[in-house]
Each structure stands twice: as structure tokens, then as C-alpha cells.
Amino acid sequence: MKFVKGLLSVTALSAIAIISHTGSAQAISFSITHGTTGPGGVTNQGAYSDLQLPGTKTVDFNSGSVPTTGFAKYSFQKNDGSSSVRSDVWAPAGVNGQVNTSNYLAVFAGNDVTIDLANHLDYFGINWGAMSPGNVFSFFDGDRLIEKISYDNVNPMAEVRAAQHGNEGNGYVHFTATQKNQYFNRIVISQIGGGGFESDNHSFRMASVPEPTAILGLTAVGGALLLKRKKQTQIEE
């Protein structure tokens, strides 16, 4: 019975993350997982995307700076050093809450980071945490706002609660556009009010025109990954 209850709770969690957002005027759906370990299985660089979608490119900030050329160009609203790439205890946690000792992107109150993309995307993923009130993502097609997704939307679903962050939420968040008019070519990361917005290991995939079955498969992957992890936890118990 314990396993059945766990199975139902994970299924419901996936439905909240995907169905409620596509069915309540949300243009871009999202799901949240623990993510996966870094290259070679390293656990001290935060979580990476576990979807492994073909054509995905990742920015990990390990160089110590943001990209300013190429497929994803990052720019700070204020170039005063208040928001930057850095390494400290607030770096997004690993798959099971491990301390991340690598560089990550931090955005603070009153500042934005804009990501201008060379092509339209249908998928964007981030290691997000420690999640804080005022964390906001805005997705645009040119100057047209498609969607805003914030801490309030995602934090209740975060299963990773890192001790080094006072048990604040962490996880790998997958944003998916399933219709052509939802494809985006600009992302703005903002911190509204006090606190900070910490993220790492950004994943980008250029938009294509998927078959209907591919769309269903993509939106279901987040729930399947959560179900697998919950099943493993129940077996270990």
C-alpha cells in the first residue's frame, strides 16, 4: 500500500507540473526532476539535464563568465558586478543535494540577465536553487512576452531540499514549448525584491516541428523520471 500511495503521489505531482499549466492559460509547461550528475559522474557541479534531448547545448559557467557570443548571448542589465558568475555556498545543489563547488550564475535584486538566442527554442532547462521568492523567468519571442514562471509556480514541487541552503528547494527544471507560437528566442532572468536567483547548467534546444506523439512524449518525460526515482526510493525502504 505504501508503494501504491507513492506511485499515486508522483503521478499527481507530474500532472500538476504539466497539465495544470497547459490547461490554465500557461503557454509554456514545466516539470521538475532531480536532474543527473555532471560529466563523468561528478557530483560537485550541480545537476544537469536528465532529458538528454537530441541537439541540446549546455552552458555550465565553469569558465567563470557568461557567453557573450554564439548561440546564447548573455547580458546584465547592470554591469556593476552585483550580479555575476561566482562560486559560493549558494550554488545550486547536486542531484541529491550535494554541495556545488563550481561556478554558477547569480542575479540579485533590481537586476536582470537577458539571454538572446540565435534561434527559436522549444526547450530550456536549468539547475535552479536555492529557490527564493522573487525568482522570475520571462520568455519572449522578440518583444512579445510569452510566459512568466516564478518561484511560486515551481518551489512547491521541488523534492531536493539542500541542507547547505537551509532546506530551500533545488532541482532541475525543464521548460517546454509544445506549439509553434510558444517558441522563444529571448529569456530574461530577474530577481524581484530581496534575495538572489541562483542557477547553473543551462540547457538549450533549437525548436523543430515535432510530431504529436513526440510532443506527448516530451511532456511526459518529467513525470516518468520522477516516478522512476520514487520507485527506487520505495524499494530501498
Automatic annotation (TrEMBL):
Residues 1-27 form the signal peptide. Keywords: Signal. NCBIfam families: cyano_PEP (TIGR04155), PEP_CTERM (TIGR02595). This is PEP-CTERM sorting domain-containing protein. It comes from Leptolyngbya boryana CZ1.
